Amino acid sequence: MEASELLEIVARGEDSRHQFKADATNPTSLAAEMVAFANSGGGKIFVGVTDDGTIQAHDAASVSRLNQLIANAASNSVRPPINPLTENISVNNGVVVVISVPDGLSKPYMDNIGSIWFKNGSDKRRVTSREEMQRMFQSAQLVHGDDLPIPGATVADIDRDYFEAFFEKRFGSKLDEQEVSLAHILTSMRLVRDDSLTVAGALLFAKQPQPLVPAFHVKAIAFPGNDIHADKYLDSQDFVGNLESQFQDGLAFITRNLHRSQQDQGVNAQGQLEVPQLVFEELLANALIHRDFFVSAPIRIFVFNDRVEIVSPGHLPNNLTIENIKSGNSNMRNPILASYATWILPYRGLGTGVLRALKEYPEIDFVDDRDGNKFCVTVRRPAGGQE
Question: Residue 241 — left, alpha, or beta (φ > 0 → left; ψ -120 to 50 → alpha)?
Fold first, then answer.
């Protein structure tokens, strides 16, 4: 980093990626700052800059002391240890020490007294809520939202006829020919855990999933025009039931609110959709399978005159980016759900769904909203949805 770049950053003030400290003398305090960055996407700590942006550069002896303090804090006061990089930037007849903390791969990180810190704007805060801690364990792939047991949900909640049809299709044998109990089979399939249905088990095979997982459904609404209205809509419906039902009903909602054209078809033909149906099959299946189950919110579908939006709870997992998914990369947030969904939905589980959708219809935009903790896919309708 050049001095001019440092001064430019300082002029903009502190934010979620840049923290200023006039000095550092306490390894525990410094460790807490590094923990917050490691848990929140990474960032830089500028030692030698006050909170108001005044430069208070350090001399050679102080720089040597700081670098030793940084190394000790990172290795002895952060669990698991991290490896920050330091740069000594000459400015104002002294040096500002810049500590670069990478986004951690082994979240959650904590300080030496067991506190988990997370960035909150330009400041940091201690993580105390169960949901936040679960999400951090999820990002480290230590726990998966679809594998969580649901208190009070049991094998009795399974739609046995539906599960029997799936079992025969998936394993090539009849359920009633097995020599073990249904509970044993569901446990071995990781659909039951500690005698309770898991989130995956409920969404895939429960007779009525919503009383068990009330937030995990689909809300859809079609608006006149291109904006959300508080009290005007053309069509609105909530889709509940198992994963297959939510998919089929959500897809039907989208297609019935799009235009069709006859083109070269006969007058009795249904007509061709303005956007190929395959596009919405891929995008809706992805939303249902890869949503974040630590966020208690439904998937939302919005149909406007000029676009269709599918909004999923939870941003892209870990270090996955929009460019990654456009290249066919994937990160399986809900591995149990994904493994069985290939037998229920038009989903292949190879990370190629987005590629197929873009190949079929390139007018698709993606927004990974990490602050809002949601992922939005926007499909542009041709000519603003007009025939």
Answer: left
